[in-house]
Each structure stands twice: as C-alpha cells, then as structure tokens.
Amino acid sequence: MKFQIRIQLYLVFITTIASVVPNVVMAAPGFVSKVNNTVTTNSNNTYWTPQRLQNAKPLNLPKPTNQLTTQTVPLAGTPVSASGQAPTINIAPDLQNKLFQPRQTNSVANEQLVQPNNAGSARAYFTSSRLVPLSADLVYPYRAVGKLFFTIPGQGDFVCSGAVIKPRIVLTAGHCVHGGSGGQKGFFTNFLFVPAYRDGAAPYKSWSWSYVLTPDAWAKGNGVVPNAADYAVIEINDLPFKGVYRKIGQVTGSLGFKTFSLFPNHATLLGYPGNLDNGNKMHQVNAQSFRTRTPNSVEYGSDMRGGSSGGPWIQNFGVASVGQNGGQNPSLNQIIGITSYGPASTDLLFQGSSVPDSRFVNMLNTICNRRPGNC
C-alpha cells in the first residue's frame, strides 16, 4: 500500500512539474525529443538572413560505417498505412517570394560529384531527372516536398530534404536533426522548412519549427549507417495567409505512408541533392528495390548525393487515371522510405533507407498526440 501511495505521489509530482513548466516534455520511451524554446511563431524567426541561407551547405550523405552485409531475415511485418491528403485550401504560389539569391557556381565538394547515369558499378538501375516541367513542384503531390535548412552547433548551416506527412508534421532523416549521440544535446537547431523550394524562392512561404522527435535507434546509434531507424519528425508552426493562420498541410497537402513496404517495391525518390542543379531545384529518381542490408535497410539505385538526405521514397507517385483501380498495392503517394545513406565511392550510385516499422508508427503517434490538430 505504501509503495502504491509513493508511486501515485511521484506521478502527481511529475504531472505538476510538466504543467507548471510547459517546456518540460516527457518523451515517449524509445525516442529523444526537443522543444523549440526560442521561436514560438514564424513571424519572429530572425536567424535566417539571406546570407545564412545562401551559405548553407548540403549535408553530406552518411557513408556506411559498419560492414555491409545482406539482410538474411526477411524484412516483413504487418503493414500500417495512411493516405495522403491534397491541399484543402487554394493558395496561389508566389515565386517572387525570394529568400536569397542562389550561388551560380557549383560549391559542392569534389567527393560529392558523380557522373549521372542510369546505373553505377553496383548495377542498381534507375532513372534520374529534373522535374518535367519545372513548374510541377508547385502542384500536389510534389509541393508537399521541400528543402530543410538547419544549424549544426559549432559547424555551421546546412540543408537536407523533407516532406509534409501530416497537417503540422514534416518527415526527414534522423541524421538531419540529430548527431547520433548526446541525448538532447545532440539535436541540431534553427530548423526552417521551405516547401516547393526552387532557385532561392519560397512559393508557399518558409516555416519554422516547434518540436522535433527521433527514435533512440538513431539518437543513440553514434551516427552508424545503415541504421534501423534513421528518420525523424518535426512539428511546424502555423503561418498566416490573408490574416488566417493555416497549417502547412492545408497549404501543401501531405503524403501518406506505408510501413514494411520498401522491399520488394519501386518508388519515386525526391529531394534537393547538391550535386545536381546545385540543390536549387527539386530532383526525382525512379528506381526499384535493389538489395536489403543489415540492419533493417534497403537500397535503391540513385545518383543523388548530399542535400537529398531526408527526402521521401514514394510508392505509386502521382495522380490516377480513369480506369486505374484495384491491384495488390494500389494506394497512391505513400512514403515507404527516407533517404538515409550513400556509398563513399561515386561510381556505385545507390542510396539506402531504413525500413519504416513499428518505431515509425510510434513516432508518428507520439508527435500526433503532442498537440491537438497536428494530425
């Protein structure tokens, strides 16, 4: 009885502390999280000057640091899925909303440069292209994808890719938000998401963050890839449009997701690789599953490099035609993977993704339950 009373008193104490100090966050078991204590609305985000945005560098793709062994246990589980959602309000894009003037010369390090091809020496076949037409980035489902700017303390400003996956939630790679060790101190900061970014423009404005969450598998994995759960979610602050505050998903639409569907499958990989168009235009790769890797990862052919990290791998990308229905895997615009790593050699031409599994679902449930209206 005394033990039960002590437990109850302890829970009351914890609940009281959390209510008095709103920035105390009880992270769900298996995850590490951080609250943005410096920016509460997009209107007072003063960190990102045009010069800082211009100087932000593509974050290099993590290179495999453990022995690449073929996965022997089938990557199987009961799939959990959610549908995407087209924009619910009609916001006209504003390509005159220039955040900065992009550099005209290629600033990518030589080790990132690749010779674009439809297959590298690993013989992982793919198709790689600019969007056709370029203005496709203003249309759903492309417009749910964007460029993520952020700061690594002590190192500088960087860029990754990401995608809107719920009304207030952006999905990206774990290594785009956290260094892989150090608990809360391992988080990066100053996250700024620009959906449908193109050539320095933010046609649907730029959005700051309020909360970030990533699984222990990444946050405590010391940066080793392949990683069982190299993904993360960021809660995004609302923005005013004609005086009415809107959630980012209302403006851009959101992509769905499906777990345990990365192998076998084929997908459209989207992102902003610094080695192609200097990362100033959205890029797409179409490929099929090439091989599985330990732990819990799959590789697809791709010539994208740094800056594409965190970009979505989407099954059945696009809009259905009249007469298209049925089939064994019919759901449109569902994320089945997130760009996690790439090889050190530039002639291999593939990228890897962790397989979204129960950790992915728990991560989404956690951030969805954090604030009413997130999902």
UniProtKB/TrEMBL annotation:
Pfam families: Trypsin_2 (PF13365). The keyword Lyase does not apply. Its EC number is 3.4.21.-. It is an enzyme of class 3 (hydrolase). Keywords: Hydrolase, Protease, Serine protease, Signal. Belongs to the peptidase S1B family. This is Serine protease.
